[in-house]
Amino acid sequence: MSVPTDLRYSTDHEWLRTDGDIATVGITDFAARALGDIVFVQPPVVGATVSAGEACGEIESTKSVSDLYSPVAGEVVAVNDDVTADPALLNSDPFGAGWLFKVRVSDLPPLLDADAYRDLISGENG
Fold first, then answer.
1. CA-to-CA distance for 75 and 51, rounded, in angstroms?
2. In the predicted model, what is the mean pLDDT of residues 56-84?
3. pTM of the model
């Protein structure tokens, strides 16, 4: 299972890549595998304000519907239209083409590094 070392992770299985005050958010490989075949994504809309740890969208798979959480607080500045058109990108490339939205960060809470996230998911697997 892939856990890139250049990202930060939430305990809700979202990843975060920061570039200045803009953060790109997606779900982890672990989350995508747990969900199964993803068939629908409803990200937050551009201009929406999101809060760290709060639901801001939905991801639907053939197994279930799950909330999408934002790992940071801020204003949504972009949404990945490719993922809404082809939700399977979350399964095939969760850390690349499967990114979900970008946020202008107003609050960045502590997040897990790759080692801490690996420890978290190893506990959830076993």
1. 9
2. 96
3. 0.93
